[in-house]
UniProtKB/TrEMBL annotation:
<dbReference type="InterPro" id="IPR003018">
    <property type="entry name" value="GAF"/>
</dbReference>
<dbReference type="InterPro" id="IPR036388">
    <property type="entry name" value="WH-like_DNA-bd_sf"/>
</dbReference>
<dbReference type="InterPro" id="IPR029016">
    <property type="entry name" value="GAF-like_dom_sf"/>
</dbReference>
<dbReference type="GO" id="GO:0016301">
    <property type="term" value="F:kinase activity"/>
</dbReference>
<protein>
    <submittedName>
        <fullName>Histidine kinase</fullName>
    </submittedName>
</protein>
<keyword id="KW-0418">Kinase</keyword>
<dbReference type="InterPro" id="IPR005561">
    <property type="entry name" value="ANTAR"/>
</dbReference>
<keyword id="KW-0808">Transferase</keyword>
<keyword id="KW-0804">Transcription</keyword>
<dbReference type="GO" id="GO:0003723">
    <property type="term" value="F:RNA binding"/>
</dbReference>
<dbReference type="Pfam" id="PF13185">
    <property type="entry name" value="GAF_2"/>
</dbReference>
<feature type="domain" description="ANTAR">
    <location>
        <begin position="164"/>
        <end position="225"/>
    </location>
</feature>
<keyword id="KW-0805">Transcription regulation</keyword>
<dbReference type="Pfam" id="PF03861">
    <property type="entry name" value="ANTAR"/>
</dbReference>
Length: 234
């Protein structure tokens, strides 16, 4: 790797690091990652597949310069193709010619798009695979050790961004659940006091109102609390 390449690689990693610590949405971060990766590797195509654990499949979440026919197939099963293999084995898979690779399933598209060599890299946080980063060239190419190392670093940075987003979502869900529980408890207390009923009966009233009105129990609880506070002012 010459000095110019080295500087390009460092700049790419710096840009990705800044994006991960920014307030950008995950979709924007992944789009930036595939664009920067394709540019620095001089690749024809770069894309990111993420694991959906509930559905047990991969979803394509970001891509650069890819035919619409490919984008239409946005999911693949966890045990399918090169992506599935890389995720299972937790190590990069380098293919000199995808048309000669038995496990590569998109040969028709590869011919159409002129895809030849491929580097498929697991996106990992600690020992957990979050997805797979794929890079394709339009001519036979031997990926260097330095390039594979760079791609692995980029893939793992992307995995960190995904984990960060998942943690934020989980935190928001937990906070929402705690807020709902807190307000429901207060609403139950109001009903118990005003209607002289027990806790179970108060909870049943809130739940029934939620089902009848087709709104959340939190919204019912908030309405009960608001009504109570207005009456207290009067």
């Amino acid at each position: 790797m010459n000095n110019l390449d080295y500087e390009d690689y460092l700049e790419t990693l710096n840009k990705i690091s800044r994006a991960i610590t920014s307030d950008l949405y995950l979709e924007d971060i992944l789009k930036l990652i595939v664009t920067l990766t394709a540019n620095v590797i001089k690749a024809k195509v770069c894309n990111v597949w993420l694991i959906d654990e509930k559905k047990q499949e991969f979803n394509i979440k970001a891509t650069q310069s890819m035919h619409q026919e490919y984008l239409n197939k946005k999911t693949i099963k966890l045990n399918e193709g090169i992506v599935g293999l890389v995720a299972r084995e937790k190590k990069p898979k380098i293919i000199f010619d995808v048309l000669e690779e038995e496990q590569y399933k998109e040969k028709k598209l590869a011919r159409k798009e002129g895809l030849v060599s491929m580097a498929s890299i697991p996106m990992m946080v600690k020992d957990k695979v979050m997805g797979v980063l794929n890079v394709y060239t339009n001519k036979p190419y031997e990926f260097t050790v330095a390039e594979i190392s760079l791609l692995s670093t980029i893939a793992n940075q992307a995995a960190v961004a995904i984990e960060k987003t998942e943690l934020i979502v989980k935190t928001k869900i937990i906070q929402e659940e705690l807020d709902t529980r807190k307000k429901t408890e207060r609403a139950k207390g109001i009903l118990m006091e005003e209607r002289n009923i027990n806790e179970s009966e108060a909870f049943s009233l809130i739940r029934k109102s939620s089902m009848d009105k087709r709104i959340s129990m939190k919204e019912i609880a908030e309405a009960i609390i608001l009504s109570y506070e207005i009456r207290q002012i009067k």
